[in-house]
């Protein structure tokens, strides 16, 4: 009786790799290590390192919650680290060269498509496919649609068109995702709005519909929590943003962080990091009520029972120089003494 030959899965996958380029045995598959930073430490930690190349990210929120700012910061980091080519579909006609350059974007390495060139989802899909086809495979590419919800409907609006826009969004992802590789990063903003007639439960939805979330690996929801006002001039300087990582590639979902978003200067790298350390139980606020209402409060580090170090949460860099053990590389484990910051004050 002939001896049964052992099936070699690695050799089998190697033979088929010519036909299916992505085929690998899982243990031999090289995971992409390139992560792009949001330029905010607290949000990067909640995302388990930032946004990895090769995936799609959704940034959903109401107006002025920092969606465009965060995507421009990500683009700037991708260009700085990897020389990425930026492809920005500016459906909202909101792109400003001075603002983008101040955030670090390389304007000479960024393509901007204006609304006149991409009025519909179909035209945007055709444009992206044409651009991506001619970009060398060894180049890193950072794609943005800002925003998904601002495309025109195609064809005539009548009852027969119900659900047509949602179907168009499915089509753009089906077409573009087949062109993506480990050197591409695809981002889009999606406006949140209120449902009509909903009295109980979550009364918000995204204008882009339910479809896009099925194609995303990263989903971040942004909320405006409190205005930042200059006490002397009463000028509104920005707002505190709550970012909830609903879905991420590696870590658990529904981690929330808070950071200040300044209209002029953008988002600081350590903005909100002191607040994260308080929420995780490593520091304590001097006044819990003021802390939850986003007033500039004093934060306390209890060295021991007798010694306490007080400082402003906006001076976190000085604190980390003195106590580098609190400069975490991963999202910090919950320490006894932390508290739930969901009841974080009324919105302005």
What is this entry, summarized?
With 348 residues, this protein is of the alpha/beta class.
Can you lay out the helices and strands and say which pair or pack?
Elements: H1 9-16, E1 35-36, H2 41-46, E2 51-52, E3 56-61, H3 67-82, E4 85-89, H4 97-102, E5 110-113, H5 121-134, E6 141-145, H6 164-177, E7 184-194, E8 204-206, E9 218-229, E10 236-247, E11 255-262, E12 266-267, H7 273-279, E13 284-285, H8 288-292, E14 298-302, E15 308-312, H9 316-322
Parallel strand pairs: 3-7, 3-9, 4-5, 4-6, 6-7
Antiparallel strand pairs: 1-2, 7-8, 9-10, 10-11, 11-12, 13-14, 14-15
Give an account of the 3D structure.
With 348 residues, the chain is of the alpha/beta class. It folds into 2 domains: 32-271, P-loop containing nucleotide triphosphate hydrolases (Rossmann fold, 3-Layer(aba) Sandwich), CATH 3.40.50; 279-326, no CATH class. Helices cover 24% and strands 24% of the residues. The protein contains 9 helices and 15 strands. It has helices spanning 9-16, 41-46, 67-82, 97-102, 121-134, 164-177, 273-279, 288-292, 316-322; strands spanning 35-36, 51-52, 56-61, 85-89, 110-113, 141-145, 184-194, 204-206, 218-229, 236-247, 255-262, 266-267, 284-285, 298-302, 308-312. The strands form 3 sheets. Strands 3, 4, 5, 6, 7, 8, 9, 10, 11 and 12 form a 10-stranded mixed sheet that branches. A 3-stranded antiparallel sheet has the order 13-14-15. A hairpin with a 6-residue loop joins strand 9 and strand 10. The longest helix is centred in the N-terminal third of the chain and has 16 residues, at 67-82. It is globular, with a radius of gyration of 23 Å.
